[in-house]
Amino acid sequence: MSANNESTTNNKRQEYNSTTSYNVLILGASYGSLLSTKLLLAGHDVTLICREGTAKVFNENGSIVRMPIKGRNNDRIELKSSPQARSPDQIIFTTKSSNDDRKDNKNKDDDDNNHKDDDDDDDDDDDDDEDDDDNDNDDKNIYDLVVLAMQEPQYSAPDVRKLVQRIAIAKIPVIALTNMPLPPFLARIPGLEKVMVAPSSSKKQEDDDDDVNNLSTIREKIRSCYTDPELWDEFMMKKSEEDHDDEESSLFDVGLFSQCSPDPQAYRPTGESPNVLDVRLPTNFKAARFASEHHTTMLRQMEHDIQGIRYTDQENNNNTTSIELPVKLRVHDSVFVPLAKWAMLLAGNYRCIETNETIISIREAVTRDVGMSRRVYNYVVKLCVNLGGKSEDFVPFDKYLKAAESLKSPSSAAREIASGATNIERVDKIVALIGSIQQEERRRRQRKEMRCQQQSNLQKRVDDKLKVVENDPTNNDDDNDDNDDAYEDKSLEIIEDIVKTVDDWLEKNKTKKV
Q: pLDDT, tens digit, for every residue of 341-381?
């Protein structure tokens, strides 16, 4: 099986043991076509959202994904699948009533998880809705899951924005396949929920005015990292007044929103058709669970089905071999797992952008100064651990360093900015802002501890302790704390320098366009 004599497979030839076929809507046919192919080969239904011309290519020729296989140095396989492709304005959602929510009642014995039968039943019950009969049934679906696989600035395009708004109103489970976590998911992160979600009026009265004002300032700074922050507010709103349990929970419900880290490295080869995707680094998608066990079960079913995909290779001697395909979906209970990409982005991707308006490969950015890369990487990991993550949620630096050796091209962020983009995903700014929040909290704690020490009149006890410390040269805990603080402050400065480099280049691009 050679690169110039590639074998193919498709969802018709694929054998799978899934008991449920889910209907998935994916916004973004470039990177999204990778997950689309995996889901289709696992027996699920997929609709891709893309430009009208691109949709025509997918509908006529299908999707083609090329990827390497472990243990075969130069061999790549070509996976073919046939997703439906639509432009944003061609998607029509059926209305779900609160009395007939097949998602919430899916565990009933008479529901065999057969969504197609459910759709047929819904059509039979809706005889009074003449508009339903006027639309193409292929485009009128109750989707089980929506995947947002575009880069964050792309959602501000008018037709895409309208579709995203309708998805939010429909209250369909959404998972963002993006490097930059979108605001509803950030609101699920312990330590950030107060920052991302504005308090109710009663809560404001209970809290200290300075705290409220400080949180409001930070909230606006984080929102400014997004091209269109208002677009995501609807995902944090309850559907109706009947859903309100209490005043605080009545305003916000982010449990339908989750995040998946786009760890596999893939790109559209230059000069080839837009339905072709080349996988360069076949790692796994890492998704965080939903708040609901029901929706998480759906993700785990998809994980299981994708795990079971096998590629049948017809060898020259007419023997066939069954090959397990790379690029799996992994579902994790921790909401911090998708944030593991942050450290990689700051240590590698954003450092591909140079101050002299040149770009370099990820490999060069990481390996040119391994000590600096390690420092940036570990700082970002610690930042996430401070929010509540665990060290095992994150990839060790040395493992990332080894993977970076194969990344011989500049990052997508670097390529975009070098081509004149005025908006790119700004994970760097979000990390810097969270870092400054943690820095200020650390300094406030230190000031508070100093005041408490003074107010408690502990001077005599402090003097006694100092005498003990003077006679114990091994006791240098305070010095270590100071050193740790200085080290973190310097690391944050490095992150802020990265942000400034990106800011300056984007500003120059805006000036050139004017």
A: 999 999 999 999 999 889 999 999 999 999 999 999 999 99
